[in-house]
Design a protein that fits this description.
This protein is α+β, with helices and mostly antiparallel strands. The protein is built from ten helices and 14 strands.
Amino acid sequence: MNVIVLPIELHQFSFEICANAGKYVAQVLCRMSLSSLIGQEYDWAMQRLQAFKYELMPNGEQQRNMRRYAGSCRFVYNKALALQKQRYDQGEKKLSYAGLCKQLTEWRNSTETAWLADAPVHPLQQTLKDLERAYTNFFAKRADFPRFKKKGLGDSFRYPDQKQIKLDQTNSRIFLPKLGWLRYRNSRDVLGEVRNACVSLSGGKWFVSIQTERKVERPVPKATSAIGIDMGIARFATMSDGTFLAPLNSFRKHEARLRRAQRAMSRKTKFSNNWKKSKARIQRIHARIGNARLDYLHKATTTISENQAMVCIEDLKVRNMSKSAAGSSGQPGKNVRAKSGLNKAILDQGWYEFGRQLEYKLAWNGGWLIAVPPQHTSRTCPCCGHVSAENRQSQASFACVACGYANHADVVGAIGRYRDEYYQSF
């Protein structure tokens, strides 16, 4: 292997960067390393926040209590949201988090909602913080206006005080206020100091997510190569070196079973015991679809982050790409059925989750994730640089009309993302 050694003196400090000679990687990584070090003292240690999720094994009483606590948090959230909307309609200012906490104290002491006192107070306060964050995201135009919560969708509650949480990994149990000791499926060790714990219901099962904080050495990338990735549907991820990952299509594989279960549920009397059984069956199918997709994404991103020092992906706006084309009654959309199928295929891939996992896993391994604008990357010839829509003869084939270079269109797009980041770095 050809190695480039660059000694750099900053604050009586020197380090070496190794990369393949003749590649773009060394130049890009050196530039990014220098820009992150100039003007500040370099610390070889860093704080890492990490969550460890486990399935709980509660008894009957603990399950009933967890459902009540989740319902209490949902009630407080909806009541606080209704109060904020009422104040807005009356021309009054929105209550702050401190003002909502005062209202929560009144609700807990009121005779009408005295049952709120049975739930731990900290999870109820965290619910009000979630509402405050939802308003902040709305005013910053990062999200839509907060909506009322519905029973059975995202039931959860959070314990923020680490002093009230006790973790016994030897006996695979955790202590939570007003729930006592709960057993969990200990699949791996919890590393670091416990910060908070979140209890959630998914697919009929209860889970606990334990967030920890620990000090680790600042990672140095073991890999010395960089790669560009083009996201797609026929090919989930195409690399700039010509390799690709086949799509999992988790939803498509279970779509027929899900359709039969939903039709069976529609024939049941609503809220009857058979209707509840059918609903639980549908929830299990959805949980299986999500778990399979998440497992596939974790395996793919782990492999890429361990073997690449820098990854360039396209900055896709998945929400905009998967919008409905139905239009309105006055202006009906075109090709609605085809666009609906495309939206289903896009959402089945998990592109956003793929990028999110790559970002933190590359950071943990000392690498970098670069988001490149996707414009014209699949129309630009990587050989001569000619840009033309005629270069894309079909969805899968690329043939340059200027120099005759031919390759798979996804490979050309991946090379384009890698090339664009290189030129933008100088």
